[in-house]
């Protein structure tokens, strides 16, 4: 399922499903993809690798007896059919689907996060989760993606075969995405191309297949072979058989960890590389585990603000002793969840710990309320018991408010009768070997952190004419390596503009130059004496802010430890940072070992901007200084994994120099005398209005006084008694009626001061 394939290609001639080469946009029958004249097709090459015949195009398909079809959904343009319609398209006609689906919501390495409600897993209920005949869907893990969990549907859905790529030496692909949602890996050529089929000409091949789409095709062909070896195998069985027989590539990598069932897992390659021979051997003697079902455990209405301390939540799952885990989804609901700062760990009842962090650039712009994090790491473990969710802190930003936490666990009710058979003693792809085709002139060299460095070499061919040559700093144990930016000058010198400043002085290491060019392959090393003058006090040693158009490092700028704060100009919106750490080993390159740089609001601690960078001691960040008086700049580890050279966050308070605002009121179009005249008229009018209001208020009060029925009577005590009695009777009648009046009466100069008040 993807960008279409040629119906009559020689690679699978005689094995096509006649009615299954379809244009998925309108349902019409097609013989070749509409856009094949413009670009080479992924789907065509996928069919060659998965099911091509023997010795075709210097290659061979994994399952050369399989029947094939192709659904055209992706046309090498900006238009892609919606996942809702294609995931189970004509699922009654196929058993295994390779979904070369592209995440169109990406710009460079910036990808949108799809909340679970946007592409709900129920879309696949018709085929993937069919009760009696669940279908097999294989999805490639992308490269160049800034995430360590494959969150783009359908890769993040349960029971999808998510496949990463490894080179023929067993190395994960450069810039490959990583995370606990990766199931396994399969071979791919990496940067060097391998054969694919040509969708334009049914008799020709091309040399362009370099992505994990090739790995997914190889894995899908392998699953077809397993189904042929044992037709009784179902979806559950295939997950166990392939994982239990995988090869542990890069066997010494610190990313490997073992679960309680005995399976090794690595967040770059899952359970390892497919070993089809071992898988077929186990499949032939395998007793099916039956189908699968799921349980859900939930903690609701938590309503808790996540702080900077580790916080734990326990979810009990009641199950039988034989219930065995296939797949786990951790579901989190909250308010203002901060992805880069949210570090959830899941701990099984058996004690297996799994960091399920999500890295993404674009999340800070989105109002994310629901997150689903997938993991295959618990495959084979017992379901019953208390599962624990821990939230750990790697930086000081606001993490959000946690509302609900849930576990959705897919499991089978039977335990495997076989134990894991992973091959754990494979060759180390990081083992360098010196070659006569590329020789260093020195036998040892000195590198000073933060300084430029150069060395000389001889080569049998022009290095600049060769492709895919990389440079590394690599520990002498050959367990991990860090890529460095190098330049080849005049085919005799190698230059580094900046020696990484993140290692302790004296750390044993080699400088390695490696070529992946199939016509000029070598891996040569030079022993290094490493010196870091700042390793005694890790921290920021240079912080500069410049204009975006002039944002380049000054190699000779003075360096010293910056303790607390820095003041910069508001016009300088590009940041240049150098820092020092004291790691005891080189870093295994990848997103898990990357550096996180954050710009945090000083008052609310909300992340305003965030980026990830290779952890080598310096980086440049353009157009990021916010419009505020001050902010927090922080460097932190991207992973909480203590095996990945974790370090405590480094913080600077950044102050902006006082400056005029970005906006000012427009100049007035009136002369000054006009302004004075207008102001005089306004003041006069205001005075008249106030006087009018005062007079009106006075007259209103007077009228009210005239209408009042309160009677205050001033009585002359020298009048006859008869007159007094008469007045008393009057007042008595007025009192009974509860009417009040106000009546003025003349008072003679001879009146007494005895003035009674009657109401």
TrEMBL record:
- Listed Basic and acidic residues bias regions: 719-732
Q: Does the keyword Magnesium apply?
A: no
Q: From its record, what is one biological process in GO terms?
A: protein processing
Give the transmembrane region(s). 672-699
Q: Where is this region: Disordered?
A: 719-738
Q: Which GO terms describe its cellular component?
A: membrane
Q: Which residues form the P/Homo B domain?
A: 287-415
- Keywords, sorted A to Z: Hydrolase, Membrane, Protease, Serine protease, Transmembrane, Transmembrane helix
Tell whether Transmembrane helix is among the UniProt keywords. Answer: yes
Which GO molecular-function terms appear in the entry? Answer: serine-type endopeptidase activity
Provide the protein name: P/Homo B domain-containing protein
